[in-house]
Design brief:
Number of helices: 21
Bound molecules: beta-D-glucopyranose
Helix content: 25-40%
Oligomer: single chain
Length: about 750
């Protein structure tokens, strides 16, 4: 008892001191606001890109190494009092260059502490991809394929550490848009098609970025892109989406809500349009939902030039003035303007709008206090100096190993006929295909440059697929031929044959062909494609090898699930690598050689036909035609699918009670046995569906998952607890409700039912 009291005493001290800290921050915000001029307040809401203040040569190119031009910086800081800077120049910087840039940017504040420091933001979306030698992890889609929350958190911790090592305290990540449009160029930046998986992984990333407290090893997270950006109906980037309220609430909002609950400090707004309303003027979503209903206390930043685009692209405002006022009043707190002279114009327009009352003082103060709150939380008022020596683990062996382990648990085995894998030694292996021999195909966009195409900064010492095979299986056992190359064809990706005769001859010499197919790195508008089908030339490489009766292992390095159905049947093995990062090739050969076991599972439904894009949680009506021989839902591979080297047996699916009442929870258990000869990590997935509901229920819906390690020949019991909240859906009145009736639970090939009663 005594210890209990002592415990309670210390706990209350902690609670009070946290409350005090918050209070101090809130008081500090009020004090600052009282002292700030209108110009200073408006400046806080303005974000410019680094390019605006860099030194340039006579041709206008930024100098290398990058250096900040004092005159331009002073204009931005002293005259316009801007609140934020983002981005890199045209390419990746070294740690020393970053150090110089951030020191220059911070200098005016260090010499005059009454000024409010800028918050610097960057897109470190799969590791600190804008610092030379930063540790590069799989892109988010690959992270989701691990279904491992610890790995997701660790990825974010390491990225935060390396971002801080570069002097930056704000990361424009994670992307929480749902990956439900496989054509979309940013599919690889998402956490897949399922809201529960994306919510769990997204919250783990936010916690990893921000830590228990925002010390010098953590960064502010930025939830992107609120909301519905990914659901474009054309599949083209930044084009309109149509999302009924039911699906907005059930599918697109949950990952953001969960991240807000996890404490995410900032949000970036959808550049596109949902239901005819550009994301940047959606008062209902930005103010009513995010800020008022969910209680989000951080700030909302626009996406690139999006205040401007309301007028120039979306045509919802005739003038820039009207566009800026609408966005601001909808709930945007900061504008990524981001160029000059646009940013100067922005400041002038907002100042005038406040003076004329078109933007209220209250709205302006709200926006500024949100920005100040985040600046306080990340310690910008406490200590601007940063020492590179505090970050000796940057690019460390431990970090690289973590990136490799993440790739190991992400890469997904989709087919393994006649156990061709693990691949035994002694085979002559032809490594071929357009993506086999360059790190850019492992990393994708947002790597060293925006589109990730520049090879200048490829991490030294990291292996391409070809190099990893040569080092694992011996150079003397490996042949190489590209066969096809990817190229940019008037802004669209295309493939063409290169030295095809060389390829054919080497196929003849090989026992096994490892054919690396996939996509060119790209994102946003440059990543738009015209068809989901993988280019014919790439598929032809497989067909040539099949005609010669060779065993072919297809290795997919792609951000989107490109359709390959005409080369699936004859392939001996198929491996989805997604975009596994700098250590992806090492991980791949460890898996292929059997040194490690596969455990990745698809975070999306892999389509078989471009005319059938359905998701795993479709309603039963979609399946109806199956019996008539039709194929309304006929994917190549299902969501959650992935093989390993072990046979797993599920048994004894048990539900703690046949009936669940309003206040109850139920416990669901299942046994999983590893009948294989090596240890395996298995993702145990629990799906529940409402048998009947007033609005058509899904056939199955992911409610829980656990990734567990099972030793060879041993068995584990997995336990899940399900609450009433988990069974709710949006009814005709737009409300989350639960209805009485039967629910079906599925784990593996097992099914059992329980009843819900009020
Ligand atoms: C992208 C954002 C990114 C921003 C800053 C925009 O074009 O849509 O995801 O954070 O640029 O680089």
């Amino acid at each position: 008892m005594k210890y209990l009291f002592i415990g309670i005493f210390f706990l209350s001290l902690l609670v009070f001191s946290c409350a005090d800290l918050k209070e101090t921050n809130e008081t500090r915000i009020d004090n600052l606001l009282n002292k700030m001029s209108l110009e200073e307040k408006v400046g806080q809401t303005c974000q410019i890109t680094l390019d605006v203040i860099l030194d340039r040569d006579e041709k206008g190119n930024a100098l290398v190494p990058a250096s900040v031009n004092e005159k331009l910086l002073n204009e931005a800081i002293d005259t316009y009092k801007i609140g934020s800077i983002l981005n890199v120049g045209s390419h990746t910087l070294s740690l020393v260059e970053w150090n110089g840039v951030i020191e220059s940017v911070n200098k005016p504040y260090i010499s005059n502490t009454s000024k409010i420091p800028v918050i610097y933001g960057v897109d470190a979306i799969h590791g600190m991809n804008y610092t030379i030698d930063g540790t590069l992890f799989p892109q988010e889609i690959g992270l989701a394929a691990t279904w491992n929350l610890d790995l997701a958190k660790r990825f974010a911790e390491i990225t935060a550490y390396e971002t801080r090592a570069s002097g930056i305290r704000w990361n424009f990540s994670p992307v929480l848009d749902l990956g439900r449009q496989p054509l979309w160029s940013r599919n690889f930046e998402t956490l897949g098609e399922d809201p529960y998986l994306a919510s769990e992984m997204g919250a783990a990333i936010v916690k990893g970025y921000q830590g228990e407290k925002l010390d010098k090893f953590h960064v502010a997270a930025c939830m992107k892109h609120f909301v519905g950006y990914s659901a474009t109906s054309s599949g083209r980037d930044r084009t309109p989406a149509w999302i009924p309220e039911k699906y907005m609430k059930e599918l697109y909002l949950p990952s953001f809500k969960k991240a807000v609950d996890a404490g995410a400090l900032t949000v970036m707004v959808n550049s596109g349009v949902v239901n005819g309303i550009p994301g940047h003027i959606n008062y209902h979503l930005l103010t009513e939902t995010l800020k008022e209903e969910w209680g989000f206390k951080g700030f909302a930043v626009s996406d690139w030039e999006d205040f401007i685009m309301l007028s120039t692209v979306h045509h919802t405002s005739e003038t820039l003035e009207d566009a800026y006022i609408k966005a601001f009043n909808a709930g945007l707190d900061m504008s990524m303007v981001p160029l000059s002279p646009q940013y100067q114009e922005y400041c002038k327009i907002i100042i005038d709008a406040v003076k004329s009352g078109k933007i209220s003082q209250k709205r302006l103060n709200d926006a500024v206090s949100r920005i100040l709150r985040v600046k306080l939380e990340i310690g910008l008022f406490d200590d601007l100096n940063y020492k590179m020596e505090d970050y000796n683990d940057f690019g460390s062996e431990e970090f690289r190993l973590s990136a490799m382990n993440t790739a190991l648990e992400s890469i997904t085995l989709l087919k393994n006929s006649n156990n061709i894998l693990p691949l035994s030694k002694g085979n002559k292996i032809l490594i071929a295909g357009p993506t086999a021999d360059n790190l850019i195909y492992l990393n994708g966009a947002w790597t060293h440059t925006w589109q990730g195409m520049d090879t200048t900064f490829n991490t030294k010492g990291c292996k391409t697929v070809r190099e990893a095979f040569e080092s694992k299986f011996g150079k003397e056992n490996c042949l190489f031929s590209k066969g096809v190359e990817l190229y940019n064809d008037k802004n669209f990706e295309n493939s063409r044959f290169v030295q095809i005769e060389d390829y054919k001859q080497k196929v003849d010499l090989a026992d096994v062909v490892v054919l690396c197919l996939g996509e060119m790195p790209s994102t946003e508008k440059p990543g738009d494609i015209r068809s989901l089908n993988l280019d014919a030339e790439q598929r032809e490489l497989a067909k040539i090898a099949y005609q010669k009766n060779k065993k072919v292992i297809l290795v997919l390095l792609e951000g989107r699930p490109r359709i390959i159905n005409d080369i699936v049947n004859e392939a001996s093995a198929i491996i989805q690598c997604y975009l596994p990062g700098d250590y992806g090739a090492d991980a791949l050969v460890k898996l292929i050689s059997g040194e490690a076991n596969f455990s990745g599972k698809l975070p999306y439904t892999y389509p078989k036909y471009d005319g059938i894009i359905e998701f795993y949680d479709h309603p039963r009506s979609v399946d109806r035609d199956k019996s008539g021989g039709f194929d309304a839902f006929d994917p190549q591979w299902e969501f959650g699918f992935g093989l390993s080297y072990c046979q797993l047996k599920y048994s004894e699916l048990k539900i703690s009670s046949p009936i669940m009442n309003a206040n109850d929870s139920i416990v669901i258990t299942v046994k999983v046995k590893n009948e294989g000869n090596m240890a395996v990590k298995e993702v145990v997935q629990l799906y529940i569906s409402d048998d009947y509901a007033s609005v058509i229920p899904e056939g199955k819906k992911l409610k829980r998952f656990q990734k567990i390690q099972i030793e060879s020949k041993s068995e584990k019991t997995v336990t899940f607890t399900i609450f009433k909240e988990d069974l709710k859906f949006i009814n005709l009145d737009g409300e989350f409700v639960i209805e009485e009736g039967d629910f079906s639970c599925r784990i593996g090939n097992l099914m059992s039912k329980f009843k819900y009663k009020f």
